[in-house]
Amino acid sequence: MMDWTDRHCRFFHRLLTRRTLLYTEMVTTGALLHGDVRRHLVFDALEHPLALQLGGSEPADLAHCARLGEAWGYDEINLNCGCPSERVQRGAFGACLMAEPRLVADCVRAMRDAVSVPVTVKHRIGIDRIEGDDFVRDFVGTVADEGGCSVFIVHARSAWLKGLSPKENREIPPLRYATVQRLKREFPHLTFVVNGGIAGDAAIAEHLEHVDGVMIGRAAYHQPYDMAAWDARFHGDAGALPADRDAIEDAMVDYLERLAATGEPWTHASRHMLGLRNGMPGARHWRRVWSDHRLASRSPREVSTLARAALRDAQHAREDAPADVAR
């Protein structure tokens, strides 16, 4: 989710669900050791609970960055051992770390020694064309026993490190949810969260029959309003009522206005809410207004007014359209 789940995206998602754990984009240790720490770690207090996802392979560097994350207020530190991009591989971290489970265990132990918040690992079920489950079972066992990790977020595909793009790595290697379920049965004392290709509340509920949690990525981004029902359905918050889409847009417009007042282009954030009205009549017209670069100099509130007018006009045109006559 690089370039997707930035702080603006997470603020928007938090308007939809208050209890679901959100994750940052992967932040490399190099970016924090040698770059602008504030730019990478700043977030709005509304975003809690929030996990910082780190990319790196040097225990001391990861421990330092974990301390930074805790100091900035993150609720969890997550080590990414699942990203398959060649750029990440050149840095010797991401999915290629699965080939070195003892190094991962050293990294986790160093981070756990450095912070009091939970340290978790996100990984694949294998690398390259390994078909059996022994590889991932040994990886989990080593990282749990030697590193002390108790929470594993498992993308239920192998990562093919050569020959596939990151996008292809999300689509071509087959999904093997049964492998994640088997890990849970073999390590019942550990927490397993399944990830990969899951969309819709029915699918989430089905997976929760077998594992401890579900991570949703692109499906949540493209159909964000699905999240509005999660607090009541999956987090036991019986009093949580889904906010209507107009109220969510209003809250996001307030945020965009505050952002514009700081001098940052509000379009950096508005792009994340374009899926808010997906599935509604007129959604395409509403989205087209918010996406119109010619309106970037207008205030977010003005653009929202125009977008809602386009939505209403499209809905009225649909209602007034003559019914098809059977012939």
TrEMBL record:
The active site is at C83 (proton donor). It catalyses: 5,6-dihydrouridine(20) in tRNA + NAD(+) = uridine(20) in tRNA + NADH + H(+); 5,6-dihydrouridine(20a) in tRNA + NADP(+) = uridine(20a) in tRNA + NADPH + H(+); 5,6-dihydrouridine(20) in tRNA + NADP(+) = uridine(20) in tRNA + NADPH + H(+); 5,6-dihydrouridine(20a) in tRNA + NAD(+) = uridine(20a) in tRNA + NADH + H(+). Its cofactor is FMN. Its EC number is 1.3.1.91. It comes from the Bacteria. PROSITE patterns: UPF0034. GO terms for molecular function: flavin adenine dinucleotide binding; FMN binding; tRNA binding; tRNA-dihydrouridine20 synthase activity. Residues 1-299 form the DUS-like FMN-binding domain. FMN binds at Q53, K122, H155, N195, G196, G197, G217, R218. Keywords: Flavoprotein, FMN, NADP, Nucleotide-binding, Oxidoreductase, RNA-binding, tRNA processing, tRNA-binding. Belongs to the dus family. Catalyzes the synthesis of 5,6-dihydrouridine (D), a modified base found in the D-loop of most tRNAs, via the reduction of the C5-C6 double bond in target uridines. Specifically modifies U20 and U20a in tRNAs. NCBIfam families: PRK11815.1, yjbN. PANTHER family: FMN-LINKED OXIDOREDUCTASES SUPERFAMILY PROTEIN. This is tRNA-dihydrouridine(20/20a) synthase.
